[in-house]
Specification:
By secondary structure, the protein is α/β, with parallel strands linked by helices. The protein has nine helices and 28 strands. It is globular, with a radius of gyration of 22 Å. It binds flavin-adenine dinucleotide, nicotinamide-adenine-dinucleotide (NAD) and isoascorbic acid (ISD).
């Protein structure tokens, strides 16, 4: 049994939703496009899962956060896909792909043929077992990647009001989940191996601002160590976690955010891979001309840094997806993807944005004891990255614009003195 489409999007996450919207804007015909997703729901804004979805009061629930509301655009409900003649094959995992024959085989035994394939398989959460620790399948241990994980996290969280949560990992999931747990009146201890939180992005000075803020909300930090084992009770629930430094923490629940791996396995040996993702050119086209890759799974040339990167952020998923569709439908009119990396987070009353690259020397500015502060990264004499906490829309636009210009910086002292003003007048 089988079906054939002109365009197939493999994966039904953020990139798939934005790609579908772009196909419709550019005039795809009914019956030409299909999305196949392992998830049982139409594409949604994944960032909501660690923020609005976890709120105790009036939490975000589907259908409110289907794509593309995260960009303040229309909300693509299942009805929208139907009205535009887009086939949504949900709750269906693709188990193998043959790029030579241009086919995908689903777990239900169906063969889906395509002329053009967009791979948007995203990533999976790394499991503790991959670091030699067993027991993370216990019912009160939570990972967070998709709607099912988030639904489970809410139910575990609701069953341990006033209890103790241990959050493993000091990255995005750790920071955003710790904040949500606190808002749900749970006592939180964060454990991570680095010297400070958000080690992949923050300078020690920026990190210490957030750590102090979290401490003021009651969060405890245990840094420079990792979890080594779980204590389980007779119901198979975790009751405590042991750390490499010899300490043991009581736990009513555990949340784990220790990074991700891009979902490339269907294409290993068939497409060129780089940086843990599917290598694509500036049109998001892989080593096979009929296969494009977008979002977390794509390693693409970031023009402004003359380097191939794989980014794990929603803005990149949205824009790379749109670019791939433009390149597919209007190849002559579509140039190379010229992307300015953009990351952000919102926790408690705080909100930050980052643009560019955090390479080179850091110059901090603003009031680190107040509401608005930031940093610039200077590499090889040019401003390459900008961070701002507590900015206004205009200020965020200002740092984005200045970072894209990559201005030459001759005097670091002068840059520090001008602070945010430098970006706003660049
Ligand atoms: P995904 O959105 O992960 O979608 C991949 C899809 O492919 C899924 O539906 C999956 O089920 C499907 N799939 C995979 N393999 C198969 C298969 N074999 N068969 C069928 N279907 C398959 N980024 C930010 O910039 N800001 C944020 O605030 C932010 N918050 C986040 C919060 C959470 C909880 C998470 C998990 C991520 C967050 N991110 C955030 C990252 C952002 O969500 C991702 O970068 C983005 O979702 C990537 O989009 P994608 O479409 O590439 O992958
Ligand atoms: P991450 O890469 O942000 O952080 C991983 C963290 O795991 C590290 O900071 C480190 O503290 C920790 N770690 C690594 N190995 C460990 C070990 N053996 N034991 C204990 N801790 C260990 O990844 P994440 O926080 O898991 O986030 C997953 C994905 O979700 C990322 O792609 C991220 O970009 C995305 N996400 C993004 C946002 C956002 O952009 N606001 C929010 C949530 C999730
Ligand atoms: O980009 C985002 C983000 O940070 C969210 O929480 O999209 C979601 C929401 O805006 C959708 O509800």
């Amino acid at each position: 049994m089988g079906r054939a489409f002109v365009y197939v999007i493999l994966g039904g996450g953020v990139a798939a939703g934005y790609a579908a919207q772009e196909f419709v804007k550019r005039g795809v015909s009914h019956g030409e496009l299909c999305i196949i997703s392992e998830e049982p729901v139409a594409p949604y804004e994944r960032p909501a899962l660690s923020k609005g979805f976890l709120l105790p009061e009036d939490p975000a629930r589907l259908p409110s956060f289907h794509c593309c509301v995260g960009s303040n655009e229309e909300r693509l409900t299942p009805k929208w896909y139907k009205e535009h003649g887009i086939e949504l094959i949900l709750g269906t995992r693709v188990k193998s792909a043959d790029v030579r024959r241009k086919t995908l085989l689903t777990v239900t035994g169906e063969t889906i043929s395509y002329k053009i394939l967009i791979v948007a398989t995203g990533a999976r959460a790394l499991k503790l077992e991959e670091f030699g620790v067993t027991g993370s399948d216990a019912e009160n241990v939570c990972y967070l990647r998709d709607l099912a994980d988030a639904t489970r996290l809410v139910s575990v969280m609701q069953s341990c009001k006033d209890g103790n949560a241990v959050v493993i990992g000091g990255g995005y999931i750790g920071m955003e989940c710790a904040a949500s747990l606190v808002i749900n009146k749970i006592n939180v201890t964060m454990v991570f191996p680095e010297a400070h939180c958000m080690g992949r992005l923050f300078s020690p000075k920026i990190a210490s601002y957030y750590e102090e803020f979290y401490k003021s909300k009651g969060v405890k930090f245990i840094k420079g160590t990792v979890l080594t084992s779980f204590d389980l009770n007779s119901d198979g629930k975790v009751t405590a976690v042991s750390l490499r430094d010899g300490s043991k923490l009581p736990a009513d629940m555990v949340v784990i955010g220790i990074g991700i791996r891009a979902n490339t396995s269907l294409f290993e040996g068939q497409l060129t891979l780089e940086k843990g993702g599917i290598k694509v050119n500036g049109k998001m086209q892989s080593s096979n001309t009929s296969v494009y890759a977008v979002g977390d799974v794509a390693a693409f040339p970031v023009k402004m840094f003359a380097e191939t990167r794989r980014l794990e952020h929603v803005d990149s998923a949205r824009k790379s997806a749109r670019h791939a569709v433009a390149a597919i439908m209007e190849p002559e009119k579509t140039g190379e993807f010229d992307y300015l990396p953009f990351f952000y987070s919102r926790v408690f009353t705080l909100s930050w944005q980052f643009y560019g690259d955090n390479a080179g020397e850091v110059i901090h500015f603003g009031d680190f004891s107040g509401k608005t502060f930031g940093a610039y990264w200077i590499n090889k004499g040019h401003l390459v990255g900008s961070f701002l906490e507590g900015g206004t829309k205009e200020q965020y636009e200002g740092i984005a614009k200045a970072t894209r210009l990559k201005p030459a910086i001759e005097d670091l002292g002068e840059l520090e003195r001008q602070g945010l003003g430098f970006a706003l007048t660049a």
